[in-house]
Amino acid sequence: MRKILLVEDEAAIREFEAINLQRAGYLTVQAGSGEEAIDIYDTEPDTFDIALLDISMPGMDGFELCKELRKRSASLGIIMLTARTQEMDKISGLMLGADDYITKPFSPSELLARVDSLYRRVEMNRGGGKGKAGEEIVIDEFTLNLRRRTLTKGNKDIELTHVEFQIIEYFFLNPDTALDRSDILSRVWGNEYFGEEKIVDVNIRRLRMKIEDDPSKPTRLVTVWGMGYKWKTDD
User: Fold this and answer.
1) I need a labelling partner for 217 at 20 to 30 A (CA). Which of 2, 10, 104, 146 fits?
2) Which parts of 14-155 are beta strand (E)?
3) Residues 6+ apart with CB under 8 A from 159
4) CA 207, CA 160: separation in Å to the nearest integer?
5) What span, in angstroms and rounded, lies between the C-alpha atoms of 203 and 36?
6) 46 three-class SS
7) Tens of pLDDT, residues 72-121
8) 196-199 contacts: CB < 8 A, separation 24 or more?
9) Rounded to whole angstroms, how far apart are CA atoms 235 and 232?
């Protein structure tokens, strides 16, 4: 059963979301606060596929909850739900480890499209994707294992979310090639993604913090001005 942790302090909204997700075949476990969500998750660790987190909650808000859940699991799919339209709210959630965000109000079709898309990535990572056992891509000091869905830099393991792994995989399959933001968006989030291209930029920023020696002066994941990004190999 596809299992979702649904965190929303307003009962009516939470029930609306739960009903639509249950109709689509998802098992939902509901929490009315961030603190309750942590208690539920810690009781049943690694049983959830996705967490839907409202940002504006009393006590532990969605940002802090996202941070705590991401500490506990790199494999959990996380979607932020917010009524706010400020740019920094969206960026903050993504930088804390969320995979996607939805701005309220949203339609049931948009909610299900986003959840379905993320669930497919969760399943792909869980099953090891299409790589064969032991299949790896080695570029300079980096090794991407397609079966175990892992990235190492030298002897150091770099923990990646589902989205981050797929972005890195796309670059490793196309080294020294400029990739357009729209191509990255379609490859990772799918052709029917409702969101905006800036989600690509935020994830690139997050990846640079993990892989670059100096994220402010990237030497691997570099910007191609006017187009997008590329993975730069040693000459």
Assistant:
1) 146
2) 26-31, 50-54, 77-82, 100-103, 136-139, 142-145, 150-153
3) 74, 210
4) 8
5) 28
6) coil
7) 998 899 999 887 666 677 788 888 889 888 888 889 998 998 899 889 87
8) 198/90, 198/91, 199/94, 199/100, 199/101
9) 9
